[in-house]
Amino acid sequence: MRVLIAILLLLLQTMGVASDRPNIVFMLSDDQAWNGLSVAMHPNVSGSKEADFHTPNLEKLASQGMRFSAGYAPASVCSPTRISLMTGKSPAALHWTKAAPPETGHKLMEPRNIRSIPANETTIGELLRKAGYATAHYGKWHIGGGGPEQHGFDESDGDTGNENAYQFKDPNPVDIFGMADRAAAFMEKNAKVKKPFFIQLSWNALHASENANQATLTKYERQLKGENRKRITTAAITEDLDTGVGRIMEAIDQLGLFETTYVIYMADNGAGGGKKVLAGGKGGVWEGGIRVPFIVRGPGVKPNSWCHTRVVGYDLFPTFCEFAGIAPGKMPKGIEGGSIASLLKTAGLGEVKRPREELVFHFPHYQGDAPHSAIFVGDLKLLHFYEDNRDELYDLSKDIGERDDLAAQRPAETKKLRERLDKYLAEVDAQFPSPNPNFDPHQPVEPKERGGKNKPGKSTTN
Questions:
Q1: What is the largest distance, in Å, between two alpha-carbon atoms of the chain?
Q2: Beta-bridge partner residues of 297
Q3: Among 22, 128, 416, 417, which residue has the least CB neighbours within 10 Å?
Q4: Class of the CATH domain delimited by 23-345
Q5: What fold characterizes domain 359-435?
Q6: pTM over cut 0.85
């Protein structure tokens, strides 16, 4: 009897703690530039927003929460970011650094990636479910392994890829509103039984931008008359996505969960800087490929606040664990992120405590550029290129556009950062490109087919 009473008391305590824990709604957009919203992502950079696009709900989210001016996706392409977010580890450590198939005919041969999340990786879904959360993943999964329900999620749309973006059109462009409705139903169901929930909405947008609602397309055809078709459709699908974000925010409000729910919004990778603000784009670790919109609203977060501390997507794994009351010792080994919860409580002031001071982005592939890596320490960023063993150094506090290479002027710092980059990559057993014995510099490289990017029926890349 005493044992039974003890078990009942433990269960009651667990239920009480669980009901006091905040809900978490994490929204991940696809291929969205840092300055691709109508809300600025830096208070002192005039080009940090897209004046011709209309995202009023994200403007509202930013006014209610904190904007991270230096928020980064773990990778400059899709699947590596997604597996990193799920595991709290960097793509380099996971051996998944590119989404598209390797390109051939270059001076170097790309390393082969894993193509599915391993069964032995512990996901954030598994940890939160074990801690008493209801868990759901809607939208684009794109990391295999049997889909979200094999990796800690109670509900999902299955083992999906880019194909989902193309089959949904007006009045439900790329399933934006369908996903919002399913998420709202999941929130309502769990709110009724006072169970905390974690929902990840991996939006298909901005893929298949031509599937935007016709009314939105017509608006931008008039507004952006004379501009290229891609910019018009991107503007339209961006606004449709913002409408979906608004439906999520409205559902949270109607259920009376505003005060107890964290809402996080970021992109899976950059899409170029637009208007020459940031260098590079998707498939490269220049700022345009990895710096992304990053907004957080929730309990204790000062409205309309800014944080200029550098944060990265895999910081969310330990952050969500801290929200849920999961002790650091309960997290799996090899977590590379650090919780940003303290930044949210201190109006954005402070630093993120990670196992390592430096942040590293590793892309040993051809796509937006030749194989290269980047390391950040403070405001300094070093880029290393593997074809010619070249280093470039930038001070992002003065040169966010990476236009003034300081490597020749500051050789000691360049050398030190390169050594730290090499040390990190060795410690995580990162993969590298290797010499191509059949390389012919006189033979032009055939452009690689990018299936899945804007082609119906394709789902294996990006």
A1: 83
A2: 263
A3: 416
A4: alpha beta
A5: Arylsulfatase, C-terminal domain (3.30.1120)
A6: yes
Residues 6+ apart with CB under 8 A from 37: 49, 50, 53, 55, 58, 59, 238, 242, 293
Side chain identity, residue 402: E
Cα dihedral across residues 323, 325, 328, 331: positive or negative: negative
Percentage helix, strand, coil for the chain under 3-state DSSP, each rounded to 5: 35, 15, 50
Write out the DSSP string of 132-184: T-EEEEEE---S-TT-GGGTT-SEES-S--THHHHH--TTSGGGHHHHHHHHH
Report d(CA 421, CA 419) in Å as an integer.
5
Strands 390-395 and 108-109: unpaired
Enter the DSSP assignment of 200: E
Tell me whether the CATH fold assigned to 23-345 matches the one assigned to 359-435: no
Label the pairing between strands 134-139 and 197-202.
Answer: parallel
238 neighbors 206 (Cβ within 8 angstroms): yes
pLDDT tens-place string over residues 168-225: 999 999 999 999 999 999 999 999 999 999 999 999 999 999 999 999 999 999 999 9
Mean pLDDT over 102-128 rounds to 96
Percent of the chain with pLDDT over 70: 91
Could you report the per-residue pLDDT of 71-96, keeping only the tens digit for each? Answer: 999 999 999 999 999 999 999 999 99
Phi, psi for residue 412 in degrees, rounded to 5 = -65, -45
Task: Please give the Cα distance from 74 to 71 (Å, whole number).
Answer: 10
79 sits in which H/E element: helix 78-87
- Choose among 459, 80, 85: nearest CA to 266: 85
**Mean pLDDT, residues 381-409:** 98
CB 205 within 8 A of CB 214: no
- Spell out the domain ranges in the chain: 23-345, 359-435
Which 3 state secondary structure label does DSSP give 47?
Answer: coil
Output the average pLDDT for the chain.
Answer: 92
Structure tokens that stand for 244 in this block: 């979906």
Q: Kindly state the helix (H) or strand (E) to which residue 362 belongs, with its residue range.
A: strand 359-363
Q: What is the mean pLDDT of residues 427-442?
A: 96
Go through the chain and tell me how many residues it has. Answer: 462
